Amino acid sequence: MRILSINARDISGGAEKVACNLHISYLERGHQARFAVGFKHGEIPDTFVINRNIPSRYTRVLFQVRDYLRAKNRHLPGAWRLSNLVDWLAQPVAKLNRSMGENFYYPGSRKILEQLPETPDIIHAHNLHGSYFDLRYLPNLSDQYPFVMTLHDEWMFTGHCACTMDCPKWEDECGACQYLALYPASKRDAVTFNWQRKRDIYRRSKLYIATPSQWLMDRVQRSILKPIEGRVIHNGVDLKLYHPESRSKIRSLLNLPHDAFILLFAASNLKSNPFKDYKMMLDTIALLATADLQGLPIVLLALGSQDEKEERLGSIKIKHIPFQSDPAIVAQYFQAADLYLHAAKSENFPNVILEAFACGTPVIATAVGGILEQIDNGVTGFLVPPGDSSAMASQILNLLQNTDLRWQIGSNAAEIAQKRYDLNQQVDSYLAWYKEIIADWRSMNRNHTH
Q: Is 169 within 8 Å of 157 (Cβ atoms)?
């Protein structure tokens, strides 16, 4: 099968991990798979960068003039202001798009098929936001080829935001947005225009939509997205990497203390991520620091921090660890931890919880979004109300003091990961669906021809 996958990046957060894992699995199974990305950071086989912009000779000359003026800014009065004018003249359509609403002007994405050595049997897109893809190309692209989309957030059906938080306006018509600063941030309130433009695009598109959680699929069904078919396909974990391992052995490899009770919290841009709740995590640690720990050292590993410094809250050490691109290293941190904590304000179906499950590491998480589908409360982990640091601290102490319960929860979680969240199951589900979609597509085209 010839499969073209599309995503904003090859390496970064959860969506990138899912798209990358699927692409590599397709290659390993002998399929002709290509991975088109807006920004390339790794060396994943058969991955190429989409030419986001294809500047004309006129544009290239103006860019040279702009750059010259900016280089002379200190010595030439008014050079910076003039350079901005030249920049506008160089790309008026893009500038106009940005001034009106979300910028869809990435003409290079309309040439994506020309970058392929062969035509695809099916196209599978993941995140289409991230400043690289012209969403207005969807009707044309989905008319030429079967087009599957996996939603990892809510951006496709909102006026701008990737997570709607507690706002219900996306169901009718976005407007008067209170979350303009949320990713992807917007300088002006053009959410009604954005929402209406997306709705008009989808009315002319033929989309098959997958979501990792039923929570997100329920929202898709109430949204402006009108897929030909929607299907829930859970994310999967590479069980060859994520599995229970000797905690002592892994701590030696990572140079972590053997005598400490280690907590783990992992997220992309952990401290500044608006959809995670780092403040709740700090409040939880502050409460733990006031408890009678009987001299037991506690360490919180903050995996995905923007810095590498260490800090303390009372007797508890917080060790900040930068983003790790090697999944084998990430797996080791889950294997080394006694508990995985996940404080979030909004979530879909976080991979990190599945990775903790697979490593047999008990999870305590906030009860938001698709997390409620992942965790069987009291069986495979514990749920706490969002923002409730007291409840999280209480559950940490409960598991810290009850070794048998901690072992049982971890064992249950590892068993569920084996049964439900094996990456191979996810790959099987997508490949089987692709075959159904391609067959339906060819049948529809034959009927249309006759």
A: no
Give the distance, in angstroms, between the CA of residue 424 and the centroid of all CA atoms in the same chain.
Answer: 20
Backbone φ, ψ for residue 84 (5° rounding): -65, -40
Residues 14/152, Cβ–Cβ less than 8 Å: yes
Residue 302 near residue 319 (C-beta atoms within 8 A): yes
Cβ atoms of 324 and 330 closer than 8 Å: yes
- CA–CA separation, 70 vs 64, rounded Å? 10
Do 277 and 377 sit in the same domain of this protein? Answer: yes
HSE-CB at 131 with a 13 A cutoff on CA atoms is 7
Scored b (16 or more CB within 10 A) or e, 359-381 reads bbbbbbbbbbbbbbebbeeeebb
With residue 340 as reference, give the H or E element that holds it.
strand 339-342
Residue-range definition of the domain harbouring residue 311? 247-421
What's the pLDDT at 183? Answer: 81
Nearest to 24 by CA among 44, 8, 7: 44
Nearest to 285 by CA among 259, 317, 260, 308: 317
CB contact at 8 A, 433 and 233: yes
DSSP labels for 222-239?
TSS---SEEEE----B-T
Query: Are 134 and 230 members of one domain?
Result: yes
Measured from the Cβ of residue 267, the count of other Cβ atoms closer than 10 Å reads: 25
The stretches in the chain having pLDDT less than 50 are: none
Q: How far apart are the first and last CA of the chain?
A: 26
- Residues 281, 170, single domain; the answer is no
397, 288 Cβ separation under 8 angstroms: yes
pLDDT, position 99: 57
pLDDT of residue 101: 67
Paired sense of beta strands 122-125 and 298-305, if any: unpaired
Complete DSSP assignment for 260-317: SEEEEEE-TTTTT-TTB-HHHHHHHHHHHHTS--TT--EEEEEEEES---EEEETTEE
CATH no. for residue 50? 3.40.50.2000
What is the 3 state secondary structure string of 75-139? Answer: CCCCHHHHHHHHHHHHCHHHHHHHHHCCCCCCHHHHHHHHHCCCCCCEEEECCCCCCCCCHHHHH
| Consecutive H or E run containing 23 | helix 14-28
63 and 187 belong to one structural domain? no
User: Has residue 242 been placed in a domain?
Assistant: no
Sequence-distant (≥ 6) Cβ neighbours of residue 99 within 8 angstroms: none
pTM of the predicted model, to two decimals? Answer: 0.89
Domain count, the chain: 3
